[in-house]
Amino acid sequence: MQIERSPVIILVRPQMGENIGAAARAMLNFGLTEMRLVDPRDGWPNPKAVAMASGAAGRVLDHARVYPTLADAMEGIEYAYATTARGRELTKPVLTPEAAMRDARAREGRSAIIFGPERTGLENDDIARASAIVTVPVNPDFPSLNLAQAVLLMGYEYGRDILPPEPAPHLRRGIAETPADRIEIERLGDHYDDQLTQAGFFFPETKAASMRLNLRNMWSRLALTQGDVRILHGILRQLTRR
């Protein structure tokens, strides 16, 4: 899945192939597929990036484009966000990831998110080419994020109102995770009612009807899956095995 008009991810002078690959995986998690590389230290293509990217290699790395400078990599970009904790001396909007990606979703033109080298981050010359600065509100005693973490965070914020809200969409659930229907729960209640009757649970007789009603009501209140129902049947069969 690719999100329509999704931002371009620009990695400026990335140093390690493994980090490029991890960034590609983080991108694809949230439907981002266009990566641009500015002067990667170890050249391109990089087999270490491919190994780390796993399934994202074909969708992201195989189509990554390499540029000599950030200015060249801004081809076709109308608005760019520089991720950095520095550069506040430059007159630019300073946004949180949430605010920046909300702004990006509202724009019709192409946007880009720019990330700097792993050790030093973006330089002021890089930040000067961006439209706005994105700074993550992190623990001031330990503000360091690695490259893939930063890409993952920005990808999540961009996709959070676009991608499906459920971690496991219903159509992808296994049969054991599918909610049990009323008939399955009714049969479960019958099974327990029969066995508990044989065990003399519903006693005294004057309270048996209300006990059965409360038990049936309990089964109906529980959000049981088909797997849950099978387990509860199995437990009862094992307990009553003679």
From TrEMBL:
GO term, biological process aspect, one: tRNA nucleoside ribose methylation
Cellular component, GO annotation: cytosol
Enzyme Commission identifier(s): 2.1.1.200
Keywords in alphabetical order: Cytoplasm, Methyltransferase, S-adenosyl-L-methionine, Transferase, tRNA processing
A molecular function (GO) term: tRNA (cytidine(32)-2'-O)-methyltransferase activity
Primary enzyme class: transferase
SUPFAM superfamilies assigned: alpha/beta knot (SSF75217)
Compartment annotation: Cytoplasm
Superkingdom per UniProt: Bacteria
Major location (coarse): cytoplasm
Domain tRNA/rRNA methyltransferase SpoU type: 8-156
Catalytic activity annotation: cytidine(32) in tRNA + S-adenosyl-L-methionine = 2'-O-methylcytidine(32) in tRNA + S-adenosyl-L-homocysteine + H(+); uridine(32) in tRNA + S-adenosyl-L-methionine = 2'-O-methyluridine(32) in tRNA + S-adenosyl-L-homocysteine + H(+)
Function: Catalyzes the formation of 2'O-methylated cytidine (Cm32) or 2'O-methylated uridine (Um32) at position 32 in tRNA.
Protein family (similarity comment): Belongs to the class IV-like SAM-binding methyltransferase superfamily. RNA methyltransferase TrmH family.
Subunit structure, interactors included: Homodimer.
Full protein name: tRNA (cytidine/uridine-2'-O-)-methyltransferase TrmJ
Gene: trmJ
